[in-house]
Fold these 2 entries.
Entry 1:
Amino acid sequence: MPSLKHASPSPTPAATEWPGKVVLVTGGAQGIGKGIAEAVLEAGGSVVIGDLDAEAGKACLDQWDVGDRAAFVVLDVAKEASVRRFVDTALRRFGRIDGLVNNAGIADPVTGPLEQLAWSEWKRRIDTNLGGTFLCCKHALPALKASNGAIVNISSSRAHQSEPDTEAYAASKGGMVAFTHALAISAGPVRVNAINPGWIAVDDWKKPSQRRKPKLSAADHTQHPVGRVGLPPDIGGLAVFLLSSQAGFVTGENFTVDGGMSRKMQYV
């Protein structure tokens, strides 16, 4: 029987591929972004977190205490000069970029009735959530192409289902999903995938001055088919997989992580 010949090398074992890899995480000082950054560190990689909140960024570095494997840069993803500084700082510090996680965004989805929504508020969400993703990809792509790296965009389950008065947020997140599969075709072999988180409890993943225990009821948990509300490590684990060679044949895809809620039929 002839031996199998592979067109490309088999994936590197997860335990050995991460040392030396560098991942940029926007909005990485709190919440889901912090969970993703910690997952990268736990896998053995290095991170550069970008965030508007300098207090939160410093608190992360103090908490992690991993020496030169983590860095923080003040970042406003809606401003191109700030994004350029973020990427340039990472390259000066580490000399390479292997992964980019576009997580930064305006989290509050409710903007009120559409007929009362100011153009400036609509544009602020589009410019930050979708425009920030574009800008970070634009400036990180040359380094990602050099390292054969990967991008993970953090969209939302609201890209596919909605509550009233959330049009701007839904449009920004839906745009991220479309941007993901378009860029996957343009940027290959750099891989580009998206994650759509559902309800993720982040109260105790904030900076120390705002950290508190989540106030969750039994009904909050049991309405999810898995029996609980999500946590940042639930997203971090998938992000690390998608950034790794274990997902080397996965690109242009969109993964919903919501405890099964979007598959659950709802009746009043």
Entry 2:
Amino acid sequence: MEIELRNVSVDIPIFNSQGRSLKKTVIGFATGGKIGLTESGKTIVRCLDNVSFTAKSRERIGLIGHNGAGKSTLLRVLGKVYTPTKGYAKIQGKVGSLIDISLGIDGEATGLENVFLRAALLGIPKKQVEQELDDIISFTQLGPFINMPVRTYSTGMHMRLAFAVSTMITPDILLMDEWLSVGDQEFQRLAEMRLNSLIERSNILFIASHSRKLIENCCTRVIWLENGRIVMDDDPLKVCSSYFC
């Protein structure tokens, strides 16, 4: 199990920028990355800039930095959603993401039907879903509402269903954008236990967060990003002491 990024940059093109004041501004670093021009004069935002690191088995890596620093873009590269504009990315292993746990939920389908729909999107075999179905239904605490259309659910009920199915995965590489908060205090306790179990089943964890306590307690290593570049990559206590000072 291995991840290697070598001089990775990600440029996002800005179309129809000719009619805006963007090109008239000073090209440089902004909150969301570096605004620049290609050789052909097209406007781009460089969201990641020359990022290099490796990650190995059993590492728990926290990503910190201000909004727009490049954390979500890096997670999308690791999830193979974005292909680097420049550089080399080697991602070896099955990737699981908890970034958008409601993806694929159909409001017109019942909760039970959505268990199978969401699981199929995650690549979970139907046989596994059938084996774990009773536990999933019990965990959601939806009772008879499991057979009702999801459009009748409250936000909390919807999130419990999505969370229960999404955490069935057993990935080699787990990607998270902040710690998931779902339900009331009692359900939150159960969800945290389920989440910790998922993390233990995973080989490598990447979690983006603004919580110093979470990063220091959960991670074995921290990467600090600003303007799409790595500022520090070290022990959690060292990086957090510099970033949160």
